[in-house]
Amino acid sequence: MLENLARIDTVVFDKTGTLTVGSPRITRIFEYGSLPEDELVSVVAAAERPFHHPIARAARRLAAERGLRLPEVTSTVEQVGLGVHVRIADRHVLVGSRRLMESHQVALRPALVDEGAAHAIGASPLFVAVDGRLAGLLVLQDQLRADAPAAVRALRARQMRNVILLSGDHAEPSRVIAESLGLRHHYADLLPEDKARLIATLKADGRVVAMVGDGINDALALDESDVGIAVPGGADVATAAADVVLLRGGLDRVVRALDLARESIHAVRRTLDIASKANMVVVGLASFGLARPVASILLSHGTTVAAAIANAGLPALPYKSAI
After folding, report:
1. In whole angstroms, what separates CA 251 from the centre of its chain?
2. pLDDT for the residue numbered 159
3. Which is it for the CA torsion 81, 55, 320, 205, positive or negative?
4. Pair 140, 124: CB distance under 8 Å
C-alpha cells in the first residue's frame, strides 16, 4: 500500500461529504399534490429515519426544527444510490432521485421548472411520490469545504495526471462544484457500481488511482482503487473499505498522506543505496586483506544502522493506516 500511495498519479474525489461539507439543508419545498408542506417534511423524515446519510440528517433536522410528529413506517426498502420506498399507513411513499421516480413510472413533468431552478444554483432536488403520483420536491443545498480549493491546487502542484470529481447527484450540481474548483473532469448520476467501474477503467489506462470518499455509496470505489482514503466522519462501511483512514483534519491530510508516502519511499531507497555502497567498500577492503571479519561486519552494519537512524524521522504507514 505504501508504494502504491507514493506512486499515485490520479486522485478521484466523491462530491457530497468529501468535497462538500456533507450537511445539506432543505432550503425550498414545492408541493404538487394534496400533501401540505409540513406533512411532506414529516413523511420524508419518517422515511429517512433509519439512515445516517446527509439527506436523512437534513430531513430529520428540519422536522425537529418545525416540531413535527413523524408518522409510523411499517416497511422500508432502500435502493442504494437512488432512495427509499416505504409504507406509511396504507400509502406507498417514494423518496429519492429522479432515477428512482422514473424506475417507478412517476411522472415528473410538474416539477421540471423547479428542478431546473434547483440545478441552476448547484442544489440537489429530492423527489417525493405517494401512491405513484408526484407529491413534492425538496431542494437541498450543501456547501463546498473551505479547504477543497487549496487541496486541489496542492495536488496539481504535485503534478497529478488528473484530479476527478464523482457524484451520484445530477450532472448540473456536480458541474457547478467542479467548475468552482477548476476541475475539467467530473462524472455525475453514478451508482456505487458505476463509480467502481470508472476507477477500474482508469487503472486499465495505466493510472495509479487514489479514491477519496466518505459514504456507503463510495465503498465499492474505495475497494477498487489502488489506495482508498476515507475522510473524517465517514460511514463505517467506507472506513472498512479504505486503506487509509483520516481521523481528523481536512482535505490537506490527503495531500499530507501522499507526501509522507513519497518521503518514506525515498528514505528507504536512500538507506538501501548507502548500505549497498558500504557493502561494496567492505568487500573491496576485505579482498585486499585490509579489513578483518569483525571490522567488516561492524562497518557494514554500522553504516546501514546510521543511515536508517538518519531517516527515522519519517513515520511509516502500515497496511491499514490512520492519519
Report:
1. 11
2. 85
3. positive
4. yes
Largest CA distance in the chain: 99
pLDDT means over runs of 10, the chain (323 residues): 85 91 92 94 95 90 96 92 92 95 95 93 92 96 92 92 91 88 92 94 95 88 93 78 83 89 71 60 58 52 52 49 54
CA distance 54 to 56: 5
Cell readout for 22 is 456533507
- The catalytically annotated residue of 14, 214, 226, 243 is 14
Distance CA 315, CA 271 (A): 15
> How many angstroms from the chain centroid is the CA of residue 25?
20
Distance of CA 292 to the CA centre of its chain: 58
Evaluate the CA torsion angle 116, 118, 122, 128 in order and state its sign: negative
Q: How far apart are CA 153 and CA 145, in angstroms?
A: 14
Q: 54 phi and psi, to 5 degrees? A: -60, -40
14 is catalytic: yes
- The pTM of the full predicted model, rounded to 2 decimals, is 0.73
SS3 call for 216:
helix
All cell numbers assigned to 316? 511509516
Q: Answer whether 60's CB lies under 8 Å from 26's CB.
A: no
Query: What does the angle CA 264 – CA 159 – CA 255 come to, to the nearest 5 degrees?
Result: 50
**What is the C-alpha to C-alpha distance for residues 229 and 219, in angstroms, rounded to an integer?**
10
Looking at residue 323, its pLDDT comes to 56
Per-residue exposure over 153-177, b if at least 16 CB sit within 10 Å of its own CB, e if not: ebbeeeebebbbbbbbbbebbbbbb
